[in-house]
Design a protein that fits this description.
single chain; about 550 residues; alpha+beta; 14-stranded antiparallel beta barrel; 10 helices; disordered N terminus
Length: about 550
């Protein structure tokens, strides 16, 4: 019974929250927002996307400083058991009564500061480049009213308590809940580039990645809601029931007394840190004044995040949150990525870019080998165009399509952490303040597809609660067998023993819960808006 019901609630809230996605930010500068196809660009900003292309810059120092601000939402429209009359309708969460069986759970993610720095020195055939940026994560997301995946578990409390007590007194539930995740993956990258010929260059690079994450959440103040609308702590509600059963069957007192512990507060506050290295190779071929093609390959980054877990109102509960156990190292590899692209310039004032990315997601080890749940690798297609209006103004626009290898009803995603296929569009301008200084401004928006996830057993609720009740059943059965054996030894017919009749009634009610069906549905949707500004300087 120490595996409390609310352990399942918090486990569902925290597992894979934020840490579940393959965190790779390709938008490493403000210019990305106005041209999402940078795979074959020749610019100081290519230090990240096309390091071999840096070799074709003019001799001397080049620098770019950028910042982007991202604003995201993550929404799950969820129902459980029944879309019209499900148990969500009986809940009071953070003091507010639910008004529908289909609930909207919304998380807001903000990243007002996503900085990056590019620096390069070019000397004839040789060049050296440096890039610093946030290559994954970059902000925090808050679910101020929790999520359906764990409120649904608490919503079963009335059914469980009514079954254990043989009454129908509990009409609903009340709880306080909160979940927050924060994630930053900082990357510092050094590239060396060499021109094999005047038109062909190669690059070798190495990126050091430092990850720092925090996950904080709680489920607390869980109470029963009675027929008259009043609320009562589970411990208080169970006290007379425990006393009555103890009077009838003293052996049941410890078992039933432990039931009230399922409503104990559970909290998690876990910091994760780790680092890894990413080898990088690249090539760029300037075929002529009109065509440029390039490719880059980033090897897989082996990343292990070490936990430092603090606050927990229940030590045994935290120990069960295996992924967040103090001192544990968690697998969180960043996948290898192949970039390819081409740039065509029909006239000197116009540049047209196309490209693509292939993410080797299925080869990147995640905690619990979640990568095996993917149906295929992820990939992206990009396109963009730039036009120099005059010596001062350049305008551009771009597009990117992102496809994840999720398949249908993917076990890889949940309402806590999900990605969906999307299209991004952006536009902006470069303003040449002088011959050596330019200003980039941009805005891009991502339009995500809805993702419908259907559950025969909503987030394994039936299985999890079944494990909880199985422990009760086993203990009660053991008590019944002991009483029956004692009766036989003392010449008493077990069928006439009132204690066994009480136990039989209790067992029947508990077993009746196993017939409950727990289907569910999540409709998942995200939004993303990013604005950027950057300064480019040629010394």
């Amino acid at each position: 019974m120490k595996k409390q019901l609310l352990f399942f609630a918090l486990a569902a809230a925290s597992l894979n929250a934020f840490a579940g996605g393959y965190v790779t930010n390709t938008n490493q500068n403000a210019a990305f927002g106005r041209n999402l196809s940078q795979e074959a660009m020749i610019d100081i900003l290519a230090t990240y996307a096309n390091p071999a292309g840096v070799a074709f810059l003019s001799n001397g120092w080049h620098m770019a400083v950028n910042n982007q601000s991202a604003f995201q939402t993550r929404t799950a429209n969820s129902w459980f058991v029944d879309a019209e009359r499900g148990p969500f309708l009986t809940g009071i969460v953070n003091g507010e009564r639910n008004t529908s069986s289909t609930k909207r759970f919304k998380g807001k993610a903000t990243a007002p500061v996503i900085p990056s720095l590019d620096l390069a020195y070019v000397q004839d055939k040789w060049s050296l480049g440096f890039h610093f940026g946030i290559i994954g994560g970059g902000g925090k997301c808050e679910f101020s009213d929790g999520l359906g995946s764990f409120e649904s578990k608490v919503s079963l409390l009335p059914s469980v308590l009514n079954a254990l007590t043989g009454t129908n007194d509990v009409k609903g539930y009340a709880m306080d809940t909160y979940m927050r995740g924060r994630q930053y993956y900082f990357g510092g990258q050094i590239n060396g580039t060499y021109k094999l010929t005047p038109n062909l260059s190669v690059a070798l690079g190495l990126r050091a990645v430092y990850a720092t994450c925090n996950y904080y959440g709680y489920v607390s103040n869980v109470q029963t809601v009675l027929a008259d609308g009043t609320t009562m702590p589970v411990t208080n509600y169970m006290a007379p029931v425990v006393a009555q059963l103890a009077a009838a069957v003293p052996e049941l007192a410890p078992v039933m007394g432990s039931i009230s512990s399922v409503a104990g507060d559970v909290r998690l506050n876990c910091d994760q840190t780790g680092w890894g290295l990413t080898p990088i190779i690249g090539i760029d071929w300037r075929i002529n004044d009109h065509w440029n093609v390039a490719a880059k390959y980033e090897f897989k980054t082996r990343l292990r995040l070490e936990n430092e877990s603090g606050e927990s109102a229940s030590g045994s509960a935290l120990a069960q949150l295996d992924e967040y156990a103090d001192g544990k190292k968690v697998e969180a590899d960043i996948p290898a990525i192949l970039y390819v692209g081409a740039q065509y310039s029909p006239i000197s004032a116009v540049r047209i870019n196309v490209g693509g990315h292939l993410y080797f997601d299925k080869q990147a080890t995640q905690y619990g080998h979640r990568e095996k749940a993917l149906d295929g690798q992820g990939w992206e297609l990009t396109a963009g165009a730039e036009y120099d209006i005059n010596d001062m103004f350049t305008v551009s626009a771009g597009w990117q399509h992102t496809h994840y290898g999720l398949g249908d009803n993917s076990k890889y995603i949940s309402d806590m952490s999900f990605v969906t296929n999307s299209n991004s569009v952006g536009l902006g301008a470069r303003i040449h303040v002088s011959k050596k200084v330019a200003l980039d401004i941009s805005y891009f928006k991502t339009i995500y597809n809805h993702y419908d996830k259907h559950h025969d057993d909503y987030n394994n609720i039936k299985a999890n609660v079944g494990n909880l009740l199985a422990g009760v059943t086993a203990q009660v059965k053991g008590i019944a067998n002991g009483i029956a054996a004692s009766d036989v030894q003392n010449g008493i017919n077990p069928a006439d023993d009132p204690r066994l009749q009480v136990i039989s009634s209790l067992s029947g009610r508990v077993q009746g819960l196993s017939a409950v069906q727990t289907p569910g549905h999540d409709r998942l949707l995200r939004t993303n808006d990013v604005v950027g500004i950057g300064v480019v300087v040629d010394f």
